[in-house]
Design brief:
Blueprint: H1 5-20, E1 24-30, H2 32-35, E2 40-46, H3 49-67, E3 73-75, E4 82-86, E5 90-96, H4 97-103, H5 105-108
Parallel strand pairs: 2-5
Antiparallel strand pairs: 1-2, 3-4, 4-5
Length: about 130
Amino acid sequence: MTVPETVLSELKTAAAAAADKLATNILSYDVGERLGITDAFLVCSAPSERQIAAICDEVELKLKEIHGSAPLRREGRDSGTWVLLDYGHMVIHIQHEQERAVYGLDRLYADVPKLELDLPEEENQV
């Protein structure tokens, strides 16, 4: 399955917004065939609760401004360690670095295709 161009465009916007707020290890996965309920995941990390909140705010703002998209569901904002933004066609995971290591989404989806986000290489590092 191929992620539609409209979804890929939104993923790139979300990834750039996350990078602007210094998110690290920004990756996107084509999970459509595996899950069937969404086309893609965007996963990124941050070292603090404050930075996670800033990334979340920026991602939501840019997706609304540029694409007119708003999340159908938002979870974890109060926990500060993992925010999930569900847009239906894509799900964005903003995780504390330790949470990301513990829950291992990257390991769970290691066998699905990664999507090119067109980020400068230094913004896509751990």
